[in-house]
Specification:
disordered N terminus, four-stranded mixed sheet, Ubiquitin-like (UB roll), 6 domains, 16-stranded antiparallel beta barrel, about 750 residues, alpha+beta, globular, 13 helices
């Protein structure tokens, strides 16, 4: 800002000790509108002002931060303020570290394009960059700021980072450790000793993380408290750094003390709103056992949950420990202040640019006028997640007063209408291509409709389906489908034309039932009669054309938290099918499917997911069980590494050829570990092991396995799976497949 003394001299020269303002004008002002600028003045037209009043006006404008200079001129009653605006930052770049990473620019640099040039803000950003680099273990880092004035008057700012050297912890020692295994500490601390091949996944690199040095002692002490050592003391680590090779020696001094056992568990409710016996039912801590801080925290949360389920949303549970150092016992006290019962005033839906409000509201278990429940809130989040319509959802609790709150449901739409492309390659069927146009949420109505075409050298499949999971927003569902297929095998062709209709009902939040009817016409075209000697008539019996008229009854359980990528919960489905209500086919089938999903982030520190899936199918011949109605294994959904439907019992012809005739029962299971690969691209790496059994009289007749790696990717047009598999326990005539891919399926 220009020297105020010069301004004073100018003003003195024109005798502003008492002047009358006839007009107020502005020159060079962009960021403040004239009406706003006028309101900021303490005077107006026709007022008399002096130099002090004018000085205050100039200072007030300058403090807005938009200008590098502000001055005023007076001419025959006309007062004009002149402004020199700060330059605009039109481009920001980061080089040398996390080059132009958008997340880093937002979270660390924190300067937006279009913001005003401010030297102090640039220096603050430089400091944040250095601190962020140091968090990754590098010291002596240098960040330079380059400024380029562009032709349009704006400024391009470039932060050039020169990363310093990483410190490697060569040796880590613990002094005073007697009762615990020091290996337990390595599971919780961030700064660990370097291990051989530390760059390999699962090994310790030894990189020092400077910002975690202050927290690692607390993590070690917390580990001691999990075993009852409430008096454990862990000093700050002593670090000796060799700046010649940037290696470090680190040591901790620890005083363990004695382990404390629990002598008593007390409950103190400020208002008795629930019996102590009910609270004690959820407490896992037990008298006589060593104290465990993790169980202690978990119990406090459980108490809060059962209180919140009684509508005490603002309950406070304050744990307290009363130690007796003489006999090393501790009394655990939970102080509970319930507050008032809370009612939901309003529920606001936001972020649903496509899905109708009512589609979301019907999944909520809390509405205006309802009493608050923490369990209902969690179940509502999971129910919305299972729709598969959104990338994510949160339910924000906004406190209105001590007895009222609003719920704000925030969702982010995911692509539900997409073109699905899938396929694979095998030595038998050649290239398989699947093309489907499907929308699980057509027009945002929650209705699922799709058309699918599948073609290969040996197969043709066409289908149309439409289903509504909530007919008229009720607990009833309905579906209709029609399908046609032609499959060419080595020895015969089979053509199918069918239709199905069904209805279901939601009995509880996680349990649904279904009843359906299916009719199909199935025609076989044998290339030649089977030539298997005495069994000729019996085997040809399997390949007779038939019609099937069948009823299906099923029940399912699903409490997972997401449709495509669940991280918690389980699924279970049991169905029974009976044919023979007309048509030639006469059989009974049962199908059992199970899935369990566990997020491992709390254990391993990153978003890993463990999955286990199993299925058991059984068919009983009550009159006529056609070969097409029997079971087969292979491919996605059963045992990867083999062609789809290629694993089954068979019959041998005289010329040595085998004809697959399917099995009457099958069991297969899959173990999968899904790991984040490129989180920003929503791409994950999955490893898997599959094993299955199939047979007629027993499951031990055929046993095959497969293993491999795959990619799971939430692409812009839907979820994609690409699987690379190798067979296990395969035999000479098995039809193996090296890879499969599909799109639009649940992981």
């Amino acid at each position: 800002m220009r020297n105020f003394l010069a301004i004073f001299l100018i003003l003195s020269g024109i005798n502003l000790s008492a002047i009358t303002i006839k007009s107020i004008n502005y020159e060079g002002m962009v960021h403040i509108s004239q009406p706003v600028a006028l309101r900021m003045l303490s005077f107006e037209v026709n007022d008399n002002i002096d130099d002090e009043i004018l000085d205050e006006a100039i200072k007030k404008y300058f403090k807005q931060g938009y200008f590098t200079d502000v001055w005023a001129e007076y001419d025959d009653g006309n007062l004009t303020f002149h402004f020199k605006e700060k330059a605009i930052i039109s481009k920001i770049e980061l080089k040398g570290w996390k080059d132009n990473d958008k997340d880093i620019l937002d979270s660390v640099v924190q300067i937006k394009k279009g913001s005003l040039y401010d030297k102090k803000k640039l220096l603050a950003a430089k400091k944040r960059i250095i601190e962020a680099i140091s968090q990754e273990g590098s010291i002596d880092s240098v960040v330079e700021i380059e400024e380029e004035h562009l032709d349009n008057g704006s400024i391009k700012v470039t932060f050039i980072a020169n990363e310093g050297e990483e410190i490697i912890i060569e040796n880590l020692e613990y002094s005073g450790v007697e009762n615990l295994d020091s290996g337990l500490f390595n599971e919780v601390i961030a700064n660990k000793e370097h291990q051989f091949m530390g760059w390999f996944w699962g090994r310790n690199s030894g990189d020092m993380k400077l910002t975690d040095l202050a927290y690692d002692p607390l993590r070690i002490r917390d580990t001691y408290m999990q075993y009852g050592y409430l008096d454990a003391k862990v000093d700050e680590p002593f670090v000796r750094v060799n700046f010649d090779d940037y290696t470090a020696q680190m040591s901790y001094q620890i005083e363990e003390g004695e382990a404390y056992s629990i002598s008593k568990i007390s409950l103190q409710q400020s208002d008795k709103v629930i019996s102590d016996e009910k609270i004690r039912e959820v407490i896992d801590l037990e008298i006589g056992e060593n104290f465990n801080i993790n169980t202690f925290r978990s119990d406090a949360q459980k108490i809060k949950t059962i209180m919140a389920d009684l509508s005490y949303a603002f309950v406070q549970v304050t744990p307290d420990l009363r130690k007796n150092k003489k006999d090393h016992t501790v009394e655990v006290v939970f102080k509970i202040v319930p507050g008032e019962k809370v009612t939901i005033r309003n529920v606001v839906i936001s972020g649903n640019t496509r899905t109708l409000d009512r589609i979301i509201r019907r999944e909520l278990y809390l509405g205006p006028g309802d009493k608050y429940s923490l369990t209902d809130l969690k179940d509502s989040r999971n129910s919305i997640g299972r729709l598969g319509f959104f990338e994510g959802n949160t339910i924000e609790e906004r406190r209105v007063d001590n007895s009222t709150m609003d719920l704000v449901v925030k969702v982010k739409e995911a692509p539900t209408g997409n073109i699905q492309i899938g396929g694979g390659y095998g030595s038998y069927g050649g290239l398989l291509v699947t093309l489907a146009v499907n929308d699980r949420n057509i027009w945002g109505s929650g209705i699922n409709m799709g058309v699918q075409v599948e073609r290969s050298q040996k197969t043709k499949n066409y289908s149309f389906n439409i289903s509504n999971p909530r007919l008229n927003d009720s607990d009833f569902s309905g579906n209709f489908s029609v399908y046609m297929s032609d499959i060419e095998y080595n020895d015969y062709d089979v053509s199918t034309l069918g239709t199905g209709v069904g209805t279901g009902h939601r009995f509880s939040r996680n349990i649904t039932g279904f009843v359906g009817y299916n009719y199909s016409k199935n025609d076989y075209d044998l290339h030649d009669l089977l030539d298997v000697g005495e069994d000729n008539e019996t085997v040809n019996y399997y390949f007779e054309s038939y019609a099937k008229s069948a009823m299906t009854i099923s029940a399912s359980f699903d409490n997972t938290d997401d449709y495509y990528l669940p991280r918690e919960g389980a699924t279970f489905r049991q169905s029974f099918e009976k044919s023979g209500l007309g048509g030639e086919a006469d059989f009974f089938k049962t199908r059992t499917n199970f899935g369990k999903y566990n997020g491992l982030e709390d254990y391993v520190g990153f978003d890993a997911i463990f999955r286990y899936k199993a299925r058991y199918y059984f068919a009983a011949d009550t009159g006529y069980l056609p070969v097409a109605e029997r079971f087969y294994m292979g491919g996605l959904g059963s045992v990867r590494g083999y062609e789809s439907y290629s694993i089954s019992p068979s019959v041998n012809e005289k010329d040595g050829r085998k004809r697959l005739i399917g099995g009457a029962q099958t069991f297969s299971n899959n173990v999968e570990l899904s790991l984040p690969l490129v989180p920003k691209a929503k791409m994950r790496l999955v490893s898997f092991l599959d094993w299955g059994f199939i047979g007629d009289d027993s499951l031990s007749e055929f046993s095959r396995g497969g293993y491999g790696l795959g990619l799971e990717w939430f692409s812009p047009v839907g979820p994609v799976q690409i699987m690379f598999a190798r067979p296990l326990n395969n035999e000479k005539d098995d039809r193996t497949s090296k890879f499969d891919f599909t799109m639009g399926q649940r992981f």
